[in-house]
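WARN retry 2 of 3 for item q-0093 after timeout on previous attempt; input resubmitted unchanged.
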Amino acid sequence: MGYSRRTYVQPGAPGIFHCVSRCVRRAFLCGEDPLTGRSFEHRKKWIEARILELADIFAVAMHAYAVMSNHVHVVMAVEPDIAMSWSEEEVARRWLRLFRSARDIANASLESRIEALAIQKTRIATLRRRLGDISWFMRCLNEPVARRANREDGCSGRFWEGRFKCQALLDDTAVLACMVYVDLNPVRAGTASSPETSCHTSLRRRCDAGEPTGPLAPVASSIPDAVLPVTAANYRELVDWTGRALNPSKRGAIPRRLPAILTHLALRPTQWLCQVPATESEYWRAIGCAESIAHQAKQLGRSWLRGVGFARRLEFVSETA
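OK item q-0093 returned
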Protein backbone atom coordinates (compact mmCIF):
# COMPACT_ATOMS: atom_id res chain seq x y z
CA MET A 1 0.00 0.00 0.00
CA GLY A 2 1.37 3.42 -0.96
CA TYR A 3 1.12 6.51 1.21
CA SER A 4 0.91 10.16 0.24
CA ARG A 5 4.31 11.84 0.45
CA ARG A 6 2.90 14.53 2.71
CA THR A 7 2.41 11.77 5.30
CA TYR A 8 6.21 11.60 5.64
CA VAL A 9 7.34 15.03 4.41
CA GLN A 10 5.34 17.74 6.12
CA PRO A 11 4.66 20.69 3.76
CA GLY A 12 6.49 23.83 4.81
CA ALA A 13 8.85 21.99 7.17
CA PRO A 14 12.63 22.23 6.70
CA GLY A 15 14.78 19.12 6.38
CA ILE A 16 17.41 17.24 4.41
CA PHE A 17 16.18 14.65 1.94
CA HIS A 18 17.47 11.96 -0.41
CA CYS A 19 15.39 11.82 -3.60
CA VAL A 20 15.66 9.30 -6.44
CA SER A 21 13.99 9.45 -9.87
CA ARG A 22 14.13 6.44 -12.19
CA CYS A 23 13.49 6.16 -15.90
CA VAL A 24 10.42 4.20 -17.01
CA ARG A 25 11.00 0.45 -17.02
CA ARG A 26 14.52 1.36 -15.82
CA ALA A 27 15.49 1.66 -19.48
CA PHE A 28 18.83 3.18 -20.49
CA LEU A 29 17.34 6.52 -21.50
CA CYS A 30 20.27 8.50 -20.07
CA GLY A 31 23.16 6.15 -20.81
CA GLU A 32 24.30 3.66 -23.45
CA ASP A 33 21.67 1.10 -24.38
CA PRO A 34 23.43 -2.29 -24.65
CA LEU A 35 20.62 -3.69 -26.84
CA THR A 36 20.43 -1.01 -29.54
CA GLY A 37 23.93 0.39 -29.18
CA ARG A 38 22.55 3.94 -29.03
CA SER A 39 24.24 6.32 -26.62
CA PHE A 40 22.27 8.83 -24.59
CA GLU A 41 25.21 9.90 -22.41
CA HIS A 42 24.78 13.53 -23.47
CA ARG A 43 21.50 13.68 -21.55
CA LYS A 44 23.39 13.34 -18.28
CA LYS A 45 24.82 16.82 -18.94
CA TRP A 46 21.29 18.16 -19.32
CA ILE A 47 20.27 16.73 -15.96
CA GLU A 48 23.39 17.87 -14.11
CA ALA A 49 23.07 21.40 -15.47
CA ARG A 50 19.40 21.48 -14.48
CA ILE A 51 20.16 20.32 -10.93
CA LEU A 52 22.67 23.13 -10.44
CA GLU A 53 20.36 25.71 -12.01
CA LEU A 54 17.43 24.76 -9.78
CA ALA A 55 19.58 24.84 -6.64
CA ASP A 56 20.25 28.49 -7.45
CA ILE A 57 16.50 29.22 -7.77
CA PHE A 58 14.75 27.15 -5.08
CA ALA A 59 15.29 27.55 -1.32
CA VAL A 60 17.53 24.49 -1.25
CA ALA A 61 21.16 23.51 -0.72
CA MET A 62 22.42 20.72 -2.98
CA HIS A 63 24.80 18.57 -0.94
CA ALA A 64 25.22 15.62 -3.32
CA TYR A 65 23.96 14.25 -6.62
CA ALA A 66 24.73 11.49 -9.10
CA VAL A 67 23.33 11.16 -12.62
CA MET A 68 23.30 7.51 -13.64
CA SER A 69 22.20 5.74 -16.82
CA ASN A 70 18.65 5.04 -15.63
CA HIS A 71 18.20 7.05 -12.42
CA VAL A 72 19.21 10.23 -10.62
CA HIS A 73 20.08 10.78 -6.94
CA VAL A 74 19.98 14.14 -5.14
CA VAL A 75 20.67 14.94 -1.47
CA MET A 76 19.39 18.40 -0.64
CA ALA A 77 18.47 20.56 2.31
CA VAL A 78 15.16 22.43 1.99
CA GLU A 79 14.47 25.64 3.95
CA PRO A 80 10.97 27.00 3.17
CA ASP A 81 11.53 29.88 5.61
CA ILE A 82 14.26 31.22 3.32
CA ALA A 83 11.69 31.63 0.53
CA MET A 84 9.39 33.41 3.00
CA SER A 85 12.12 36.02 3.58
CA TRP A 86 12.45 36.91 -0.12
CA SER A 87 10.78 40.06 -1.41
CA GLU A 88 7.89 39.87 -3.85
CA GLU A 89 10.21 40.99 -6.65
CA GLU A 90 12.77 38.29 -5.76
CA VAL A 91 10.10 35.57 -5.78
CA ALA A 92 8.84 36.80 -9.15
CA ARG A 93 12.35 36.97 -10.59
CA ARG A 94 13.18 33.42 -9.50
CA TRP A 95 9.89 32.02 -10.78
CA LEU A 96 10.30 33.66 -14.17
CA ARG A 97 13.71 32.01 -14.48
CA LEU A 98 11.81 28.71 -14.30
CA PHE A 99 8.86 29.45 -16.55
CA ARG A 100 9.28 31.77 -19.51
CA SER A 101 6.74 31.57 -22.30
CA ALA A 102 7.74 32.72 -25.77
CA ARG A 103 4.69 34.99 -25.98
CA ASP A 104 5.54 36.77 -22.72
CA ILE A 105 9.15 37.27 -23.74
CA ALA A 106 8.09 38.73 -27.09
CA ASN A 107 5.52 41.11 -25.59
CA ALA A 108 7.31 42.49 -22.54
CA SER A 109 10.72 42.96 -21.00
CA LEU A 110 11.87 40.83 -18.08
CA GLU A 111 11.66 43.71 -15.60
CA SER A 112 8.12 44.61 -16.62
CA ARG A 113 7.03 40.97 -16.27
CA ILE A 114 8.62 40.83 -12.81
CA GLU A 115 6.77 43.98 -11.76
CA ALA A 116 3.47 42.67 -13.12
CA LEU A 117 3.84 39.38 -11.24
CA ALA A 118 5.13 40.94 -7.99
CA ILE A 119 1.91 42.89 -7.40
CA GLN A 120 -0.21 39.71 -7.50
CA LYS A 121 -0.15 38.98 -3.75
CA THR A 122 -2.11 35.73 -3.84
CA ARG A 123 -0.04 34.38 -6.72
CA ILE A 124 3.22 35.36 -5.00
CA ALA A 125 2.16 33.56 -1.81
CA THR A 126 1.60 30.38 -3.84
CA LEU A 127 4.97 30.73 -5.59
CA ARG A 128 6.77 31.18 -2.26
CA ARG A 129 5.47 27.83 -1.09
CA ARG A 130 6.47 26.17 -4.35
CA LEU A 131 10.02 27.54 -4.20
CA GLY A 132 10.47 25.80 -0.84
CA ASP A 133 8.85 22.51 -1.82
CA ILE A 134 10.81 19.37 -2.79
CA SER A 135 7.99 18.05 -4.99
CA TRP A 136 8.07 21.20 -7.09
CA PHE A 137 11.87 20.99 -7.25
CA MET A 138 11.70 17.43 -8.59
CA ARG A 139 8.91 18.37 -10.99
CA CYS A 140 10.97 21.26 -12.38
CA LEU A 141 13.97 18.93 -12.68
CA ASN A 142 12.25 16.01 -14.38
CA GLU A 143 9.64 17.56 -16.65
CA PRO A 144 11.92 19.69 -18.90
CA VAL A 145 14.34 16.76 -19.29
CA ALA A 146 11.48 14.46 -20.31
CA ARG A 147 10.15 16.95 -22.87
CA ARG A 148 13.59 17.52 -24.35
CA ALA A 149 14.33 13.79 -24.57
CA ASN A 150 10.97 13.08 -26.21
CA ARG A 151 11.58 15.81 -28.79
CA GLU A 152 14.96 14.29 -29.54
CA ASP A 153 13.42 10.83 -29.95
CA GLY A 154 10.40 12.09 -31.88
CA CYS A 155 7.98 10.41 -29.48
CA SER A 156 5.65 11.08 -26.57
CA GLY A 157 4.95 9.37 -23.28
CA ARG A 158 6.65 8.93 -19.94
CA PHE A 159 10.37 9.35 -19.48
CA TRP A 160 10.42 9.09 -15.66
CA GLU A 161 8.44 6.86 -13.34
CA GLY A 162 5.40 8.60 -11.89
CA ARG A 163 6.68 9.00 -8.32
CA PHE A 164 10.14 9.81 -7.08
CA LYS A 165 11.46 8.12 -3.95
CA CYS A 166 12.06 10.43 -0.99
CA GLN A 167 13.85 9.69 2.32
CA ALA A 168 14.21 12.11 5.23
CA LEU A 169 17.74 12.24 6.66
CA LEU A 170 17.37 12.75 10.39
CA ASP A 171 20.92 13.29 11.67
CA ASP A 172 24.45 14.16 10.52
CA THR A 173 25.48 10.52 10.22
CA ALA A 174 22.50 9.78 7.96
CA VAL A 175 23.29 12.81 5.80
CA LEU A 176 26.97 11.90 5.37
CA ALA A 177 26.25 8.20 4.80
CA CYS A 178 23.70 9.07 2.12
CA MET A 179 26.06 11.55 0.45
CA VAL A 180 28.81 8.91 0.34
CA TYR A 181 26.32 6.36 -1.00
CA VAL A 182 25.33 8.78 -3.80
CA ASP A 183 28.89 9.80 -4.71
CA LEU A 184 29.94 6.13 -4.86
CA ASN A 185 27.09 5.11 -7.20
CA PRO A 186 29.22 5.11 -10.38
CA VAL A 187 31.95 3.07 -8.63
CA ARG A 188 29.47 0.45 -7.44
CA ALA A 189 27.88 0.36 -10.90
CA GLY A 190 31.26 -0.27 -12.52
CA THR A 191 31.18 2.87 -14.68
CA ALA A 192 34.09 4.51 -12.84
CA SER A 193 37.27 3.08 -11.34
CA SER A 194 37.42 5.62 -8.51
CA PRO A 195 35.10 8.30 -7.05
CA GLU A 196 37.13 11.22 -8.38
CA THR A 197 37.05 9.87 -11.96
CA SER A 198 33.27 9.41 -12.04
CA CYS A 199 31.34 11.84 -14.22
CA HIS A 200 28.19 13.79 -13.36
CA THR A 201 28.51 13.48 -9.59
CA SER A 202 28.84 16.09 -6.87
CA LEU A 203 32.23 14.69 -5.81
CA ARG A 204 33.62 15.11 -9.32
CA ARG A 205 32.37 18.69 -9.32
CA ARG A 206 34.05 19.32 -5.95
CA CYS A 207 37.31 17.87 -7.31
CA ASP A 208 37.15 20.01 -10.45
CA ALA A 209 36.58 23.11 -8.31
CA GLY A 210 39.74 22.45 -6.29
CA GLU A 211 40.29 21.54 -2.66
CA PRO A 212 38.51 24.13 -0.46
CA THR A 213 39.30 24.65 3.19
CA GLY A 214 36.85 24.88 6.04
CA PRO A 215 33.47 23.14 6.46
CA LEU A 216 31.93 21.12 3.64
CA ALA A 217 29.72 23.46 1.63
CA PRO A 218 26.97 22.50 -0.85
CA VAL A 219 27.87 22.25 -4.52
CA ALA A 220 25.09 24.77 -5.23
CA SER A 221 22.80 26.61 -2.85
CA SER A 222 20.32 29.42 -2.22
CA ILE A 223 20.61 28.93 1.56
CA PRO A 224 23.22 31.06 3.38
CA ASP A 225 25.77 29.18 5.49
CA ALA A 226 24.39 25.74 4.56
CA VAL A 227 27.55 23.87 5.55
CA LEU A 228 28.04 20.47 7.17
CA PRO A 229 30.13 19.90 10.32
CA VAL A 230 33.02 18.23 8.47
CA THR A 231 35.78 19.56 6.26
CA ALA A 232 35.89 19.03 2.52
CA ALA A 233 39.18 17.15 2.88
CA ASN A 234 37.73 14.81 5.52
CA TYR A 235 34.71 14.11 3.35
CA ARG A 236 36.82 13.26 0.32
CA GLU A 237 38.94 10.97 2.49
CA LEU A 238 35.79 9.29 3.83
CA VAL A 239 34.41 8.65 0.32
CA ASP A 240 37.70 7.16 -0.83
CA TRP A 241 38.07 4.98 2.28
CA THR A 242 34.47 3.74 2.03
CA GLY A 243 34.83 3.00 -1.68
CA ARG A 244 37.90 0.88 -1.08
CA ALA A 245 36.30 -0.96 1.85
CA LEU A 246 33.06 -1.68 -0.01
CA ASN A 247 34.89 -2.81 -3.16
CA PRO A 248 37.68 -5.25 -2.22
CA SER A 249 38.69 -5.70 -5.85
CA LYS A 250 39.37 -1.97 -6.22
CA ARG A 251 43.04 -1.01 -6.48
CA GLY A 252 44.84 -0.06 -3.31
CA ALA A 253 44.61 -1.26 0.28
CA ILE A 254 42.12 -0.13 2.90
CA PRO A 255 43.91 2.29 5.23
CA ARG A 256 44.45 0.84 8.68
CA ARG A 257 43.93 4.08 10.50
CA LEU A 258 40.43 5.25 11.35
CA PRO A 259 39.20 8.13 9.14
CA ALA A 260 39.04 11.34 11.15
CA ILE A 261 35.35 11.87 10.41
CA LEU A 262 34.38 8.48 11.86
CA THR A 263 36.11 9.42 15.08
CA HIS A 264 34.21 12.70 15.12
CA LEU A 265 30.89 10.87 14.64
CA ALA A 266 31.80 8.25 17.31
CA LEU A 267 31.25 5.42 14.80
CA ARG A 268 33.11 2.17 14.32
CA PRO A 269 34.20 1.36 10.74
CA THR A 270 32.04 -1.78 10.67
CA GLN A 271 28.97 0.23 11.61
CA TRP A 272 29.68 2.76 8.88
CA LEU A 273 30.25 0.10 6.22
CA CYS A 274 26.90 -1.46 7.15
CA GLN A 275 24.99 1.82 7.03
CA VAL A 276 26.20 3.22 3.71
CA PRO A 277 25.02 0.34 1.43
CA ALA A 278 21.80 0.08 3.48
CA THR A 279 20.67 3.56 2.38
CA GLU A 280 18.04 2.25 -0.04
CA SER A 281 17.83 -1.42 0.91
CA GLU A 282 17.18 -1.32 4.68
CA TYR A 283 15.61 2.11 5.19
CA TRP A 284 12.53 3.51 3.54
CA ARG A 285 11.03 6.94 4.28
CA ALA A 286 13.61 8.10 6.84
CA ILE A 287 17.26 7.41 7.63
CA GLY A 288 18.92 7.96 10.99
CA CYS A 289 19.61 6.39 14.37
CA ALA A 290 16.87 4.30 15.99
CA GLU A 291 15.92 7.13 18.34
CA SER A 292 15.59 9.63 15.47
CA ILE A 293 13.45 7.27 13.39
CA ALA A 294 11.19 6.48 16.36
CA HIS A 295 10.78 10.20 17.04
CA GLN A 296 9.97 10.83 13.36
CA ALA A 297 7.33 8.09 13.44
CA LYS A 298 5.76 9.65 16.53
CA GLN A 299 5.72 13.07 14.86
CA LEU A 300 3.88 11.54 11.91
CA GLY A 301 1.37 9.77 14.12
CA ARG A 302 2.67 6.31 13.27
CA SER A 303 3.80 3.51 15.55
CA TRP A 304 6.94 2.75 13.51
CA LEU A 305 8.83 3.40 10.28
CA ARG A 306 10.73 0.85 8.26
CA GLY A 307 14.41 0.94 9.15
CA VAL A 308 14.09 1.38 12.90
CA GLY A 309 14.85 -2.33 13.47
CA PHE A 310 17.96 -2.17 11.29
CA ALA A 311 19.09 1.00 13.09
CA ARG A 312 18.75 -0.75 16.45
CA ARG A 313 20.75 -3.75 15.23
CA LEU A 314 23.38 -1.42 13.85
CA GLU A 315 24.02 -0.02 17.32
CA PHE A 316 25.23 -3.44 18.44
CA VAL A 317 27.42 -4.25 15.45
CA SER A 318 30.84 -5.16 16.80
CA GLU A 319 34.16 -4.27 15.32
CA THR A 320 34.80 -7.89 14.41
CA ALA A 321 31.35 -8.51 12.87
